[in-house]
């Protein structure tokens, strides 16, 4: 320190001597003055599911929660008087959970590089988040992974005892205020001045990711009778969201609501081709012979001549393989005419087409052996793929019909409650079709693993994708409330986590 003071006279002489040579520095740009407009961001509470929580790479973990879309919003709100944003952090960056020491969920994924190429792989180790170790709230981020719309209102959804019976949610159990609490009850009790609501994707998504094995419950107004993979009745959905908004706005809070993306736009459904099977000439010939699919095709032809199926269905169901690349997998399709009453061997199977959407997880199943002792029992070739591995056009229509009804409700409720509205459906459709160019010239796309928009589970955004979503929310908020929040720079966030 003394040496520093001793230099001061010398430095002073140097500066004086060079005064005339000192370049003129223009005044820097003034710091922008941000305003909240008519909104009050003092107490911000985010309500939703995994998309709100910051779920990424098939798990919830600390870094993902830090890079959650609501936390990005809160950083903007802090510029105009927004308060602290408390997050119910997981115990580590692995993501796996235990209940009573027994693992109940897996770790996050990373891209491992093996001899046969890169593949999403769970991070090794045991996650240390124990569900029964309740955290002391309240928490501003009330995004509950896995929650359907009507479950956000369910009392007891945070019961630790209920988790072991499949009646409660482990993510909410560790942060709920009591065993009988509801997500919305705990969210509303915080007295938010501003809220975000993005809920309902699981009411469709779980049906879609299950390959349409669930039931479309349209017309059934009792969600207590639904299974996890069913589609929620649109009237139930509308009633639930209305109830949530009534509760969150009861004390005059303002907010923002987002509609739902078309789940078929995400990499989970756009990555695996319908025709990934390579065959040599001998194998193709055998599969087309009477010993294999030739007999099936002949049986179909006979029933078509008898008028039991149309020529179009005969063509759709006829199975044919060729030597080389690009053979379509064989799938079960429950929407085909049931012919097993004529011949038990004529099951509802056909080859997939470009209109079928193979689920992401089918990539590790297609080509495996149904019977390890039988080298010909190849799944997707000799053994048709079960319904859970593919979303057929008929099932896609069911998904689209529900999505249309839900999004009409969301838009109407945004108008009714006079809150900001974000068209996430259009945003993700744009990401899927062409992507978003960034300031450095790079483009964020929906391409699996390399596009930067989605994480390795193929459903949830990567941090950079969440940043693009956050900016859409900010834009809607600025437009509605007259604020001028700056948004975030997506390049500040990673496009893919590493191990």
Automatic annotation (TrEMBL):
Signal peptide stretch: 1-19
Key word DNA damage present: no
InterPro entries per UniProt: SGNH_hydro_sf
Record flagged with keyword Membrane: no
UniProt entry keywords in alphabetical sequence: Hydrolase, Signal
GO molecular-function terms, A-Z: hydrolase activity, acting on ester bonds
Protein name according to UniProt: GDSL-like Lipase/Acylhydrolase
Source species of the chain: Flagellimonas zhangzhouensis
């Amino acid at each position: 320190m003394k040496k520093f003071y001793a230099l001061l006279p010398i430095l002073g002489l140097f500066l004086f001597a060079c005064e005339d040579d000192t370049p003129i520095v223009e005044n820097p740009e003034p710091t922008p003055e941000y305003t909240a407009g008519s909104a009050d961001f003092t107490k911000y509470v985010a309500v939703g599911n995994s998309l709100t929580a910051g779920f990424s790479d098939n798990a919830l973990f600390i870094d993902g929660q830090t890079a959650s879309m609501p936390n990005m919003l809160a950083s903007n709100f802090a510029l105009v008087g927004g308060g602290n944003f408390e997050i119910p952090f997981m115990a580590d960056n692995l993501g796996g959970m235990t209940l009573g020491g027994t693992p109940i969920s897996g770790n996050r994924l990373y891209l491992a590089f093996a001899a046969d190429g890169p593949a999403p792989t769970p991070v090794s180790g045991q996650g240390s988040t124990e569900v029964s170790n309740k955290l002391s709230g309240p928490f501003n981020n009330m995004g509950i992974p896995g929650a359907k719309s009507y479950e956000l209102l369910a009392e007891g959804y945070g019961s630790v005892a209920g988790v072991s019976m499949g009646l409660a949610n482990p993510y909410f159990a560790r942060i709920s205020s009591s065993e009988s609490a509801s997500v919305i009850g705990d969210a509303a009790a915080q007295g938010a001045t501003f809220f975000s609501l993005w809920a309902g994707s699981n009411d469709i998504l779980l049906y879609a990711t299950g390959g349409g094995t669930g039931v479309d419950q349209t017309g059934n107004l009792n969600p207590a009778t639904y299974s996890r993979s069913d589609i929620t009745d649109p009237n139930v959905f509308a009633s639930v969201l209305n109830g949530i908004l009534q509760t969150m706005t009861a004390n005059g809070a303002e907010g923002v609501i987002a509609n739902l993306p078309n789940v078929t736009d995400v990499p989970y459904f756009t990555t695996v081709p319908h025709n990934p099977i390579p065959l040599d000439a001998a194998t193709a010939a055998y599969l087309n012979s009477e010993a294999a699919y030739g007999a099936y095709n002949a049986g179909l032809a006979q029933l078509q001549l008898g008028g039991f199926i149309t020529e179009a269905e005969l063509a759709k169901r006829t199975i044919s393989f060729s030597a080389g690349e690009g053979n379509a997998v064989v799938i079960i399709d429950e929407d085909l005419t049931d012919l097993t009453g004529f011949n038990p061997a004529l099951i509802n199977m056909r080859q997939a087409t470009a209109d079928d959407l193979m689920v992401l997880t089918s990539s590790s199943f297609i080509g495996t052996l149904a019977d390890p002792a039988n080298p010909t029992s190849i799944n997707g070739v000799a053994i048709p793929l079960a319904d859970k591995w593919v979303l057929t056009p008929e099932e896609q229509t069911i998904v689209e019909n529900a999505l249309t009804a839900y999004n009409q409700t969301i838009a109407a409720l945004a108008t009714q409650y006079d809150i900001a509205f974000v068209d996430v459906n259009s945003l993700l459709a744009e990401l899927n079709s062409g992507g978003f160019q960034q300031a450095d010239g790079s483009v964020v796309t929906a391409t699996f693993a390399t596009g930067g928009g989605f994480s390795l589970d193929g459903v949830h955004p990567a941090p950079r994708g969440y940043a693009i979503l956050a900016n859409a929310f900010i834009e809607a908020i600025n437009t509605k409330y007259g604020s001028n929040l700056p948004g975030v720079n997506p390049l500040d966030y990673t496009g893919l986590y590493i191990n």
